[in-house]
Request: fold
Amino acid sequence: MDNIVQNLQGIPLNHYLIFCSVIFSIGVIGVLIRRNVIIIMMSIELMLNSVNLLLAAFSAYRGDASGQVFVFFVMALAAAEVAVGLAIVIMVYRNTKSVDIESLSKLRW
Amino acid sequence: MSIFYFVAFLSIFFALMTIFTKNPVHSVLYLVITFFTFTIHYILLNAQFLAVVNFIVYMGAIMVLFLFVLMLLNLNKDTEPMKSHLIKFMGAIAGMCLLATLLGAFHVIEANNEFVTGNTDVGLVKNLGKVLFDEFLLPFELSSILLLTAMVGAILLAKKETKEVNG
Reply:
């Protein structure tokens, strides 16, 4: 474990910022280009995870535990969001026989 | 220090595979691998509690839920709705614009290039527990209510509606 931790010494905070931005952007692209509701929710998970990692990195950088506690709350929120979201997807699929996001467009009326 | 860059490369690669794979089941499996690389990142940051929670909750619970729903709905490559190439291209361009904006902002503010040291003790279960049950006690209890609400709501939503006889 010590060896792994020692290895971390050389990583600038900037690289964490860049890496997490790339993952976040991939999540945004996933939301934009896919039509399957479940894949869109997975992309949202990807975005939440990138933010989580950045919070943890800043928390380790500052030596402040609040950031990691916040990550814990984000994870609890993500779990709740996925449970309700997938239940809604199942309900929509039962009515429309499709997981296409376009099939939800009739909700506007 | 090269471990971080290798794992970061793996994360980006599998995240890209997640959103570009046609088969939804493969997509979920790639996302599981992505989350596993995130667990390695947490271990590198010495955030042991988050690593364990990420491993159990995200990889174990949430991803199994996704996989379960995908298989319950019997989705595969043939039923996958795809957008037209133009929309895909525009979406990719928009995402790249976001990335360029973020990177440009980081370049301008010149975030200090100090090193992240992973040898802090804040990520250990003992220290996090002390913080969590002391100053974050109220949000912790509220999150438990949130999870209970989500559980009830999910069951209520996904339950088959029974036909009412004679109202």
Observations:
- The CA atoms of residues 86 and 92 of chain B lie 10 Å apart.
- Chain B has a mean pLDDT of 86.
- The radius of gyration of chain B is 21 Å.
